[in-house]
Amino acid sequence: MRGLERFLDSRLVRRARELDRLTRRLRRLLPPGLAERVAVSHYRDGVLTLNVPGAAWASRLRFMEGEIREDFEQRLGLPVRRVRVRVSIAPPEAERRPGPAHMSAAGRASLEAAAEGVDDERLKASLRRLARHGGK
User: Fold this and answer.
1) Domain containing 39: what range?
2) What is residue 27's three-state secondary structure?
3) Residue at 96 is within a domain
4) Is 80 in contact with 104 (CB distance < 8 Å)?
5) Are residues 60 and 54 in contact, defined by beta-carbon separation less than 8 angstroms?
6) What is the number of alpha carbons within 13 Å of residue 134 lying toward its C-beta?
7) At 17, which CATH number?
8) What percent of the chain has pLDDT over 70?
9) Is residue 134 pLDDT above 80, yes or no?
10) Is there a domain that residue 53 lies in?
């Protein structure tokens, strides 16, 4: 059974590396903004499948299909008959707590000065509290 596991692992690793190589090539071709949002998810029998996080990005990719096909064929020797674009729902990001906010001394001083110029006591207290917590 270990031989089968090693075989499958090596096949999976090779496949993942190939998809990564294709994704990197594609991203060099695409404009910024779009490039970071696209990934090659599959290539088989001349069909290149791309995943993007939304319909607007998919539309932009479809508009560039001819350029993508030409580039892959000329630069990689990869015959691409068709580019299939799929909108994928991104998995929710792991819940991250935002890091502590940092405020410059000048920012804190500005808030303190603003607090001094305010008549509303609640607003004054809020500005001072914000200035105090911004430095932590």
Assistant:
1) 2-87
2) helix
3) no
4) no
5) no
6) 16
7) 3.30.300.180
8) 82
9) no
10) yes
